[in-house]
Amino acid sequence: MGRLDDETAFQSNIPVPLDITVAVVYSLFGICSLFGNSTLLYVSYKKKHLLKPAEFFIINLAVSDLGLTLSLYPLAITSSFYHRWLYGNTVCSIYAFCGMLFGICSLSTLTLFSMVCFVKVCYPLYGKSSNCIHGRLLVACAWLYALLFACCPLGHWGEYGPEPYGTACCIDWRLSNRLPTARSYTVALFFFCYILPCGLILASYAGILATVHASHKTMEHHGSRHMHMSRIQIVIIKLSMAVCIGFFVAWSPYALVSMWASFGNIEDIPPVAFAIPAMFAKSSTIYNPIVYLAIRPNFRKVIFRDLAALKRRTGKCCCHPRVKTAKKNEIRRACHPMPTSRTGATPGVAPRPAEGAVAVPRRA
Predict the structure, then answer these.
(1) What is the distance between the alpha carbons of residues 232 and 219, in angstroms, rounded to a whole number?
(2) Which of 24, 56, 161, 361 has a CA positioned 20 to 30 A from the CA of residue 89?
(3) Average pLDDT, integer, range 307-326
């Protein structure tokens, strides 16, 4: 099918220092993504009764980013350290499938998120009728859309294979460069999973900005409750725009290189030109939690509150039992002095004379 021999295809084609740099960068991305997205899901669980329907998209984005982190980073990191792909053809196909599934799901989720924001701002009567069920249905649509395109190479419309730089897997770009059928899949992927979502996102935010600009003076004269709802909408719009910009920055270089590989002379493209855009693409997993936790103060409050409670519990558990017992004994002795003789006298304190008795002074 035009593939290179496995030993050649799975051997790294970039310098060893660059491979080590890629592995270190992926390790940092993986730690940040794992911590950030797990924190976002934890806070969402704690606030599950207060979540807005639009926030289901952010939660789904965290799930897909976490899936990308757990399925891709460990294999890419170890292969980069060893300067070759370590796991064979089958795992290579699974790796590429997971990357395609979670990547397309993330972009589809952002597209639906921007369209929901557009409907809520520009058509508020329809926006008010949306609820959590609608949000869950749209999230399911995002997964089905991603699953459709991720399964196509498994049915031999396109193929999964090693990246040109050797230590990761994705679409077999060499096959896309040689066979019209494989190239047609790359073109469909570029249009339906990059150009179309980007166009819908840009159109949605253009409509939002136009509506907000036209109604700005009208909103200033509304009551406090209406203004409060407007502030919530503004926060969600800012959040969605920031995450979309980060996603575009991450995936645009890889999308452009993929088209270059399909229609240009792939032998003229240096392997580094694939490795660096792939590194940018994987960085998309850390944008969502950073932006969300930075813009939403309520989520930060939940994190700080739970961290403070954890610190208090940890401090109590770390106290030594003997120290606790000693402190209790000191308090008990201070409140209830123990007698040292039958008269009940306390050391260092003279006994009080009985009632009606005359105190006899001591001789010097």
Answers:
(1) 14
(2) 24
(3) 61
